[in-house]
Amino acid sequence: MRTQAALLRSTDGRFSLEDIDLDEPGPGEVAVRIVAVGVCHTDVLPRVVPLAPLPLIPGHEGAGVVASIGPGVVDVAVGDHVVLSFSSCGHCESCLSAHPAYCDEFGPRNMSGRRPDGSGGATDAAGDPVGARWFGQSSFARHAVVAARDVVVVPDDLPLEALGPLGCGVLTGAGAVFTALEVTPGTSLVVSGAGAVGLSAIMAAAAAGATTIVAVDLNADRLALARELGATHVVDGAADDVAKQLRAIRPGGLRYALDTTGVPSVISTALDSLRVNGVCGIVGIQRGPLSIGPAQLTVGRTLKGIIEGDAVPRQLIPRLLDLWAQGRFPFDRLVRTYPLARIDDAERAMRSGEVVKPVLVMD
After folding, report:
1. Residue 283: which of 164, 152, 174 has the closest Cα?
2. pLDDT (tens digit, 9 = 90+) per residue, 129-151?
3. CATH code assigned to 170-309
4. What region holds the Enoyl reductase (ER) domain (predicted)?
5. How far apart, in whole angstroms, are the C-alpha atoms of residue 216 and residue 144?
6. Cα 45 from Cα 102, distance rounded (Å)
7. Mean pLDDT of 8-17
8. Average pLDDT score, the chain
9. C-alpha 270: how far from its chain's center?
């Protein structure tokens, strides 16, 4: 299948828009015409960590229309509107117990840019292999071939231009609140980092009925947006007394904390802000060793790593769409669209913090 994709050929270079030959869908796979795809910090990882060999097509927040299906696909049909999410095997202990984000094959299926059998899934104009399975999809392209298990069918009257981020960034923040932390009505939460994941967590906490929701960030505009999306309090992360301010908001300590920054000192502050038996979740890649003080966990606190919100995409994404329709989860306010040809501008806007969630829209 001939299509166009944005290739990353060097860790410090611009994206290259090229024609590629994409494999036709095999058993259990579907080909999706991509309508839009979110740009996420995870798509920058191949620039800084040698996870997947280059050239590679990044992109893992795709949304589009099913163009063709491979043998054995029975629950997805040509013409279905779909959101693409992370890849999982479906048969390991974690998958069978409804924790696909902790799939035994998560690394090779999502971070290698290859199929489980090691094939790249595409070739360039010279016939050389290209990695076309980043997070099982490589959706910085006009078409992607993905496992049918990894797509979520959505109503065809919804704007696909807005839905791609539901597959990862929004899913991660909301899933962390609803599933991993199980935030309950009347409780309290502090979220460190008001990016796409953090703001999604704040919207989810408001929908879950939390009555004290605190956002901590360095960006005043992000804090203002956090208030509009459900935060009851905001704290400037550059202040010298963040921990003191958090304690003043909830003198007995907050029930939950979620760190989206990966900064060890920020994680430690979040831990200190918790009440006894409080739970601190961390998402993303930690930026260095974390030292745990003698009393930080001994009072019954829990420190919990979270991948992809510990979500089952086919369960959580429809729930988020229902909340969105009710006006209770306005994730579309995070989105700014760019044409595919401006992918480098979109990446710069995401990395600088100018835009919460850039989304590439195909012509």
Report:
1. 174
2. 999 999 999 999 999 999 999 99
3. 3.40.50.720
4. 10-360
5. 37
6. 19
7. 96
8. 96
9. 21
- Neighbouring C-beta atoms of residue 23, cutoff 10 Å: 18
Q: How far apart are CA 77 and CA 156, in angstroms?
A: 13
Task: Identify whether 55 is preceded by a cis peptide bond (ω within 30 of 0).
Answer: yes
pLDDT at 285 over 90: no
- The neighbour count for residue 93, using CB atoms within 10 Å, is 10
DSSP 180: I
> How many Cα atoms are found within 13 Å in the side-chain-facing hemisphere of 297?
9
Residue positions counted in the chain:
363
Residue with tokens 């999706």: 32
On whether the CB atoms of residues 59 and 139 are closer than 8 A, the answer is: yes
Q: What is the pLDDT of residues 20-52, one digit of tens each?
A: 999 999 999 999 999 999 999 999 999 988 889
Nearest to 142 by CA among 249, 1, 257, 289: 1
CATH domain 2-167+330-361 topology:
Quinone Oxidoreductase; Chain A, domain 1 (3.90.180)
pLDDT at 116 over 90: no
Cβ contacts of residue 126 below 8 Å, gap of 6+? none
- The tokens describing 215, both together, are 């956002």
CA distance 290 to 217: 20
CB 118, CB 37: distance < 8 Å: no
CB neighbour burial string for 98-129, b if at least 16 within 10 angstroms, e if fewer? ebbbbbebbebbbbbbbbeeeebbbebeeeee
Reply yes or no on whether the pLDDT at 111 is more than 90.
yes
Domains of the chain, residue spans:
2-167+330-361, 170-309
Identity (one letter) of the amino acid at 185? Answer: P
Mean pLDDT over 113-122 rounds to 90
Radius of gyration (C-alpha) of the chain in whole angstroms:
20
Contact 309, 174 (CB under 8 A): yes
Whole-model pTM: value is: 0.96
Torsion of CA 330, 86, 147, 319, to 10 degrees: -30
